[in-house]
Structures are given as structure tokens and as C-alpha cells.
Amino acid sequence: MDDYVKTEYKKLQQKYNLPEYKKFNDVFEIVSIEENKSGKFANALTRVVHGKIKFFLTFFDPFLLPQPNSAYMMIVSKDIGRLREGLLEVYKELMVDYNNGYLVLLKGEKEMMNYVKDIWKKHEAYKKKLIKFIEELNKIVLKTTDVKENKGYLG
Description:
Blueprint: H1 2-16, H2 21-28, H3 41-64, H4 71-107, H5 109-143
Helix pairs in contact: 3-4, 3-5, 4-5
């Protein structure tokens, strides 16, 4: 399977000046792409990159739309407000990139590969922002001592 992915990637890499295979695979784990019988490797590659954006968005969701019955959110909700504004900006950027992933899948190979290159360029910045947010979040969790025990009906 790795040979298939590497061969197909190299074709697109030469045609569209994509990043080096090993570095790209280390970030996006494209080796997991199964042999595509339709012959549209560009679509599969775009979906993997698009999936990475979705992974980031999914992580941020609970902080922007907290669930009231979440113990985790109960612990961090008091202090998360100060991080929420910066978080919303990153979320908007990710959402635009996520939407663009759908858009390019409807257009064509050239647009898909431009999207792949664009996300490759942005990935490190997104990763740094995510790391910073998680580190701040951990500080909040570790300093939180004001968790009220709910002694309601336990069924």
C-alpha cells in the first residue's frame, strides 16, 4: 500500500510542486490512503488533508459551544473566557479552510492541490496555536479547585 501512495503522491508532487513525501506523510499520515480504484488519488489526498482540519475543529467545539452536563467543561468554564476570543479567531480560520476543502473537491485537481499546499503552509501555525491553547487549558485545569460536587439524584 505504501508503494501505491508514494507513487501516486510523487506524480502529483512533480506536477504541482508538493512538499517532500516523508515530511508530508509525517504530518498528514497519507500512507493510510487505500488504493483508490477510481484513479483519483488527488481526491483521496485532499480528503485526508481536509480531515486534519476537521480534527482541529472537533477539538475546539466544546470550548465554543459548551455542553452543560460535561464535567470537563464544569471544571474549566469559569476561567476559559479569557482564552475564548483568541480561540474564536483560530476557529474561524480553520472553518474557512474546512469549507474550502469541500469547495475544491467540487472543482478540480489543480484547485485541490493548491488547497493541499495551502494547508501544508498553514499547518505548523495551526499546530502552534493548538499547543498554546492546550498548555493554557492545562494551567486552568491544574489551578481549578472550585469544583462543586453535585449531590443530586443519581438514578
